[in-house]
Amino acid sequence: MLSIKFMFSLIIFNYVSPAPSLNILVYSPIFGGSHSKFMGNIADTLTQAGHNVTFLVPVADVTRRHEVGVKLTKNVMVVDKPNYNPDAAFNIDMDEVLRPLWTIQNRPSDFATCFTFFLEMMRTNCDDFTSNKKVFEELSKTKFDVAIAEPVSICGLGYFNALGIHKTILASSTTHYEGVVRNSGEPIDMSYVPVHGAYFDEKMSIFERYTNWAAEHVMAGNLEKMFDEEMEKYRKNLGVGVADWRELIPEASVFFTNANQYIDFPRPVIQKTVGIGGITVDMKKIKSEKLSEEIGKILDKRDHNMLISFGSMVKSSTMPEIWRNSILSAIKKFPNVTFIWKYESDDLKWADDTKNLHFLKWVPQTALLADSRLSGFLTHGGLGSTNELAYLGKPAIIVPIFGDQGRNGPMLARHGGAIVLNKMDLENSEVIADLMRKIVFDRSYAQKAADLANLLNSSPFSPKELVIKHTEFVAKFGPLTQMDPYIRQLNWFQRTFADIYILMFLFYSVVLIVPFLVVRKIYRLIF
Ligand SMILES: *[C@@H]1O[C@H](CO)[C@@H](O)[C@H](O)[C@H]1NC(C)=O
Ligand SMILES: *[C@@H]1O[C@H](CO)[C@@H](O)[C@H](O)[C@H]1NC(C)=O
Q: Which range is the signal sequence, renumbered to this chain (predicted)?
């Protein structure tokens, strides 16, 4: 009887006290909405799992200060720049700064130009943030079980090291970062894996392979240069003993990436890499979203509806006029299709008297994509929108504008539910209209998009589950040094077998050529 009572109390005890919650530090500087959203999602996922998450947010770009990224996590530490004055007006017009991205060419040399601005921002941010002694002291009081940072900046990893945290996790809001892959011992073969800034799929022409190879060198080189400069800052402010970033990247126990194995181009990864692409698409929440009456009425007007949105970075209202006008003429060719265009300006004279076009400054994108009345989507192909499209199963025209969008488009298009349109073709309304016709009226695209969504929503492990389980595992057993590939210790000759090829060459030279020479010598002596 006693033992039963005892067992019973054990069961009760186990039931009422779940595993002790972990102290988790997530470092997420503010500089770009999609990065903050991804890191915020990871933090919220862990908060939801019952952990004590601290979301550490240095403000790198003051104009985005409101885009923190978390919804559920309460412990948010926003760290402003030392000279920050909330009352000062910001006369930086980001729309004008970003306008040139519409027409930028996507050549490796342009990546370097684009990067200069970013490098300057991250280096300054690292200096400002690591010199804030008060924040460092405050954080030193808590013993963190595990810490997570995005390796788009290395400052966070240096900071964790200075705090004495060695159980770390990297999380990339893109499918991968070339500069990180290179330094973690993970292979990347540019002959068939499109790099971050590529504008083609895995079937590359010789010119594209060259571009891919050159782009990898430029982008990885840029990132490494930035890491070096950030390291100089964190060592200046936190001590020269803080580890080199080259040791901190491989010290991380897990690499979460915003890639989904069923969507992305197949590529070899090391066992530390865990794709959590799709974590930003919260299907439960999306299903509970309701469209406003106004939008519902718009959707009911015609049998077919298409959404147009170029995201929030480069605005539709700053698009070259000639492109805007040819999209408009394409729209006019479809009186039976209603178009909803996310457009940020009130200056709409240019589109007067177009009955089948509605402008909205903000669109409930996921609720629209989930609505059966929406027939298709014209998008810039940001990774967030690409994943939403994939999970919600709508056919789409993807017009990559800059950065990783050029890779995301072909990545989704290869599943058959989307078509990529080169942005330079936006000046041709016939080309646009032809694709609109396919996406709205040819059912095969809709079917393939629906098939992919069905597959994704039936995946064996949900991205949230992967984040929670791996993070808890690292907190308990990390750092997982046994997962650090030995290839990092090898030099180029060893890694590529060049040493062996050279030895083989020498060997065959001796074995074959020496007897030949001897025989020839003897032959000449005799005859
Ligand atoms: C949660 O984390 C904060 C640091 O942000 C810390 O001050 C607090 O003590 C932690 N709570 C628990 C219960 O450990
Ligand atoms: C629009 O729909 C009507 C009625 O269904 C049809 O007769 C007409 O041909 C359609 N027009 C176009 C341009 O598709």
A: 1-18
